[in-house]
């Protein structure tokens, strides 16, 4: 029996096998309490085995992946701040629209 690589590092990121699904995406949902079955339903390219394998890989390599996730979070915060500095009016308008949307009842 050949070993299966559920997680691969490529192009500077961590991905589930050969898919384009990031390990970060899977683990973020798992940390929020989603079951592997719910996670798999969210990412059609993944099998349930892929999701379980990814969670196991994370558990066995938590320190390394958590450090990578922190770097990604910081990169996102920096890029978001840069983008907002370039177009502050756009982001202010979007925040207002989201607030108005949340205030209305859309459960018809």
Strand content: 5-15%
Q: Quick one: overall form?
A: globular
Overall strand count: 2
The biggest sheet amounts to:
2 strands, antiparallel
Cα-based radius of gyration, to the nearest Å = 18 Å
Category by helix and strand content = mainly alpha
Summarize model confidence as the mean pLDDT: 91
What's the number of helices?
Answer: 5
Which fold name fills CATH's third level, the topology of one domain? Arc Repressor Mutant, subunit A
Strand order of the largest sheet: 1-2
Ranges where pLDDT stays below 50 over 5 or more residues in a row are: none
CATH architectural name of one domain: Orthogonal Bundle
Order of helices and strands: EEHHHHH
Tell me the name of the CATH class of one domain: Mainly Alpha
Helical content, roughly? Answer: 55-70%
Our measurement of the CA-to-CA distance between the termini, rounded to an integer number of angstroms, reads: 53 Å
């Amino acid at each position: 029996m050949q070993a299966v690589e559920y997680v691969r590092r490529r192009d500077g990121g961590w991905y589930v096998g050969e898919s384009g699904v990031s390990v970060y995406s899977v683990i973020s949902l798992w940390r929020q309490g989603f079951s592997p079955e719910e996670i798999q339903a969210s990412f059609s390219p993944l099998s349930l085995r892929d999701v379980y394998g990814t969670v196991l890989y994370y558990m066995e390599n938590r320190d390394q992946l958590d450090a990578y996730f922190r770097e990604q979070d910081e990169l996102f915060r920096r890029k978001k701040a840069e983008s907002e500095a370039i177009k502050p009016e756009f982001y202010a308008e979007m925040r207002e629209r989201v607030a108005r949307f949340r205030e209305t009842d859309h459960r018809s």
